[in-house]
Here is the input.
Amino acid sequence: MNIQLLALDLDGTTMRTNNTLAPDVKNAIERAILSGIEVAVISGRPYTSMPREILEIRGIRWIVASNGAAIYQNGVRVHADRLRETDVLRILDLTKEHDLIWEAFCGNETCSDKRYYDNPLQYGCSPAYVDYVRTSRGCCSDMRGYIFQNRRRLDCLDFVSTDSRLRQTLWAQLESALPGVYITSSSRNFVEMMNRSANKANALRQLCARLNIDIKNTAAAGNADNDADMLALAGIGAAVRNAAPACLNVADAVIPSNDEGGVRELIMQLL
Here is the structure.
């Protein structure tokens, strides 16, 4: 296959568990770019929290943020799929009986519940990501008020809960009531909501259209539920060994874990 575009998820796939980029993975990405492969980042992170180590790699022109809700070319936002105001109001109504920990993504602004910001570990955040949480977003004590105030400009919303039964119940209720909303999860304890058209597979389609690349000439790597549709669509979908079952079930290949240089292994095979 003539792979012309490589789409990389970050957390749990390209980045190590300690939230750093291994030098050999970085070198492999740079080799891929020098060989003529367009390398794009497609992440659940908002643009403002993209790792410095990724942004400093010369030749990465395309970054897809917030699970596909925003596409950036050379740092400039060129596409947005925001949540509809009516869907935001419905989400607030359906969850009003629950004291949830919310995060909201509005373009270049990210805001978290102060309780999560002050103590991410309490809600299942990895110790390696505590500094990331506190340096990449602001905080607010009234997140429902913040969401309502910004209801017309939200890229996506998520809530955090360590109660798996509550997560599953609310996920099912929201999915049933909101056909225009795409619901997924990029990590344990998170439920993420965005416009139905804002997902990683659609983002990959858009990049192919902009770059005039056939989808069969793409490769993608991922690890979480929110990566599964992208892996299923790509010409070669690669799941790291530590990936969620949804990814492993659709993957064309299984590569070593994020801590074992799986992305490097994939790139070496492509080259």
About this structure: The chain has a mean pLDDT of 95. Residues 106 and 154 are 5 Å apart (CA to CA).
